[in-house]
Amino acid sequence: xxxxxxxxxxxxxxxxxxxxxxxxxxxxxxxxxxxxxxxxxxxxxxxxxxxxxxxxxxxxxxxxxxxxxxxxxxxxxxxxxxxxxxxxxxxxxxxxxxxxxxxxxxxxxxxxxxxxxxxxxxxxxxxxxxxxxxxxxxxxxxxxxxxxxxxxxxxxxxxxxxxxxxxxxxxxxxxxxxxxxxxxxxxxxxxxxxxxxxxxxxxxxxxxxxxxxxxxxxxxxxxxxxxxxxxxxxxxxxxxxxxxxxxxxxxxxxxxxxxxxxxxxxxxxxxxxxxxxxxxxxxxxxxxxxxxxxxxxxxxxxxxxxxxxxxxxxxxxxxxxxxxxxxxxxxxxx
Length: 334
Description:
The protein is mainly alpha-helical. The protein has helices at residues 2-33, 39-57, 59-63, 67-92, 96-102, 106-118, 124-140, 151-172, 181-200, 209-215, 218-242, 248-255, 258-268, 275-306.
């Protein structure tokens, strides 16, 4: 019996680990298909492909959302739109390796923000981990020499902050508590696509989705389908499937390997050459975020053991796998 359970656990782990690999590769995929002029067009096309599938899959539950839940999810979608814009413009102007590692700072920013909001104190070891991560990013953005961070690096840093805001909003908003995760994701992505389409329609904001679609070659379409089908749909449904068969903490641990894969894909496939300072920075970022995540999870677990009925600070049913979010509350947009 234990052998069967262990084998079942490994079978569950493999698809989740594959999601982490897919997410890690998404920065290089987005960089390959997007230019500064086509950011908005690519975002519209990417989610125009994924959104109908999500809506059709969860149509009954989507119709069951109350007006209050729809408004709350729509507001979260505006934040989500900001995250996608910062990430996509950022990855155009920096390397895939930098993008994947800098965005992982969300794993440090989120517990810090949660502690301030809740009025709790994190242990000193967490601040040591945070300092290690920040030092790592400082070295990572230097590349082969000591220079100022690029605009893309700063945009990715802004995206990490925006992800943290999204996590806190999703966990604190009463209006989305109890909302079905699939429905919540669908509404948020729908609101984000409306933002992208509205911005794309403005003059001087780049190519229209139709122009970009007509100009795409076969490789561009493969990249777009990869982002839509694998980095969005496959990732979301694997999370939905996995959290019902294993613990959220286990899923979170596996998805937390995403920055490792981002760095590996960027260097091995994308040809990124971060130099000695950059490589040292990458190691420090990975070590700092992993350490910080461990400390934060330990503190969260201790708090949950001491709380009665989970209190009012939990993420609620809607926050379990909302918008491709890591189940422990560390957001990851699909």
